[in-house]
Amino acid sequence: MRFKSSDKPWDPRATPTFWVNQASRYLVRRFEERLRPLDFGMAYLPVLVALEQNGALLQKQLAEQAHVGQPAMAALLGRMERDGLISRKPDPNDKRSSRIVLSAKARARVPKAKERLQEVADRAIAGFGEDERATLMALLRRIVHNLAEPVEEQTTREESTASPTVDRRPRKVRSS
Fold this sequence. Notes:
Blueprint: H1 16-35, H2 45-54, E1 57-58, H3 59-66, H4 70-82, E2 86-91, E3 94-102, H5 104-124, H6 130-148, H7 151-161
Helix pairs in contact: 1-5, 3-4
């Protein structure tokens, strides 16, 4: 829904994106509350899941899987190491690198974390029928797809596929 300056004042609560944002904020808050007793945070989840599923990985691989830059991943791994959730082991193939592995503490707590996250997810969609859940998932996936591409790239693509404009400026005629 687009608003023109002549329309009534903009009410963010009348837009779906306001409610998506509200839901996201509440979800993250509840997830953090449930993970905190385990010494986990939401930011740790991509690393925990990647290491649980794949075993030891390089920092670069973790950054790629989490879709974050190397500096952000280095800072995150530093916090996780401080909290006793990961350790670094020499890479047998490259002595300059180290592989990140889950600590015994993290491995023992990941199943409980998953259980707690599922409890929050179940609470969020309590009372939804199967069809409603499927519809919600499809709509949210479309929103993510629509927003995944940076605006600049989207604008450039729209401009390149737009109908060509006709140059109506007068042209200089060469005399021979």
